[in-house]
Amino acid sequence: MIKDIRNIVMLTGAGISAESGLATFRGPDGLWEGHRVEDVCTPEALARHAELVHRFYDERRAKLAEVHPNAAHEALAALDRAWDGDLLIVTQNVDDLHERAGARRLLHMHGELRSALCADCGKAVAWADPLPPQSVCGGCARPSLRPDIVFFGEMPYEMDRIDAALRDADLFVSIGTSGAVYPAAGFVQTARHVGARTLELNLDPSAGSFYFEESRMGPASKLVPELVRELLG
Ligand code: NAD
Ligand code: ZN
Fold first, then answer.
1. Which of 49, 89, 107, 220 meets the CB 3.0–4.6 Å disulfide criterion with 72?
2. How far from the centroid of its chain's Cα atoms is residue 66's Cα?
3. Considering only CA atoms, which residue is closest to atom 13 of ligand 1?
4. Is 54 labeled as catalytic in the residue annotation?
């Protein structure tokens, strides 16, 4: 599975950050920190209950100060430093644990907690503090800053770049993601279509396990370092 690989795409989800102490989305009760998805992850929720949505992401942003990258983030960062071929780490996570571990060839397809986005002019700025509704955009001076999170029904970031990387990939690895949220859940099919090998690492079989050539079950902090050791020989 791991022989003759040059170009790699890694897709990561909430499961890779679980052992750092960040809750996943679809726990047993299908909630993210006690909230229903529809209440915090949709444009409708933002329009109707801006206070609640902003506060939810303020809490998630504040929580980042209490957590650290785990062995899985560290291993991907080590791979990034050492790998000669193409590598793209595509994360669905809005935390910053990949970059704090040192990963550089990284893209946040669902946005970032430590960023604020202007709903009017589209400018994004780094943001470390609480973000009250009606915060003023430095670009257009309108009171339109919102969390820079891709909500359900919105277009994920950098889909063209992701698609190009998938089309060149020899190996596609999906780590700690439930395979329930499209378009990310469909990446495995693109990868297979172009003849890439496909590997899933997850604690339990996911909704998409069926599509992967190989699934390895266990905690990311164990499986990801093992995979990186294999890849780096
Ligand atoms: P998800 O919560 O739907 O699925 C998490 C997956 O991780 C599950 O399949 C679970 O079996 C697996 N998992 C749990 N613990 C694991 C471990 N220790 N090792 C390996 N696998 C483990 O997450 P998702 O598929 O990423 O979709 C949720 C969406 O919610 C994301 O798109 C993201 O934007 C958002 N989200 C982000 C964060 C974050 O940034 N840390 C946290 C929660 C939700
Ligand atoms: Zn603006």
1. 220
2. 19
3. 15
4. no
What six digits make up the tokens of 198?
A: 């496909």
Task: Write phi, then psi, for 174 (nearest 5 degrees).
Answer: -110, 125
CA of 18 to the centre of ligand 1 (A): 7
* Residue where the block lists tokens 């560290």: 74
Ligand closest to 224 (CA) is 1
Inter-axis angle of helices 220-232 and 71-82, to 10 degrees? 20
pLDDT tens digit sequence for 104-141: 999 999 999 999 999 999 999 999 999 999 999 999 99
Q: Is the pTM of this model over 0.85?
A: yes
Atom of ligand 1 nearest to the CA of 93: 40
**Ligand 1 site, residue 207, Cβ cutoff 6 A:** no
